[in-house]
Specification:
Strand order of the largest sheet: 3-2-4-1-5-6
Order of helices and strands: EHEHEHEHEE
Largest sheet: 6 strands, mixed
Helix content: 25-40%
Distance between the termini: 45 Å
Number of strands: 6
Radius of gyration: 15 Å
Mean pLDDT: 91
Low-confidence stretches: none
Oligomer: single chain
Strand content: 15-25%
Shape: globular
Structural class: alpha/beta
Length: 179
């Protein structure tokens, strides 16, 4: 049996609050674009190239996913949106992951799946998958732009509490000079 590819969880980059628009339409700030680029470049350097990217349809998550896609030169069909990810609880995110994995089992290239989403659901999902994860001294586990790399004990279709171990928790500030 082949080992389970890592699961990549990424919170969208910093969003732009300068306009009075619906939350779902809020784009990335330049700082958010820079953070997403830094994380995408880190993925490339470490050869953690997603075979699929699953994202919320919110502008900031879709932009984050597209930055990763473009920096890693992934095919357009790699990015798929699921409206349920926007504002999702960790339980809903688990359901989305399981359904995506089952639906794409025969057609997906083996490789990491990148889920781009929002807090608090993403942090809660990370803590459910790896209960050893705790917020840093600043009180945040996954600030904007953060990437978690999880190695699983079973296929994604078999998610259970404690499913994985966090191999890396990459904060954009650790990759570049602050903007």
């Amino acid at each position: 049996m082949m080992p389970t590819p890592p699961l990549l969880l990424m919170r969208h980059g910093k969003s732009d609050w300068s306009q009075d628009i619906a939350d779902i339409d809020r784009p990335l700030k330049p700082r958010g674009r820079a953070a997403s680029t830094a994380v995408a470049d880190w993925l490339g350097r470490t050869s953690l190239i997603p075979s699929s990217i699953l994202t919320s349809p919110a502008a900031r998550t879709l932009q984050t996913a597209q930055i990763v896609q473009n920096r890693l030169q992934l095919p357009t069909c790699t990015v798929q949106t699921d409206a349920r990810i926007y504002g999702a609880s960790d339980e809903m995110l688990r359901r989305v992951l399981a359904e995506f994995t089952t639906r794409n089992a025969s057609t997906s290239r083996p490789g990491p799946l990148l889920l781009v989403g929002h807090n608090p659901g993403l942090e809660q999902l990370l803590q459910w998958l790896d209960p050893s994860q705790r917020p840093a001294s600043d009180g945040k586990l996954m600030p904007t732009g953060t990437l978690a790399v999880l190695d699983g004990k079973a296929p994604l279709s078999e998610l259970v509490r404690g499913w994985g171990h966090t191999r890396a928790l990459v904060r954009p500030r650790s990759l570049r000079a602050p903007i």
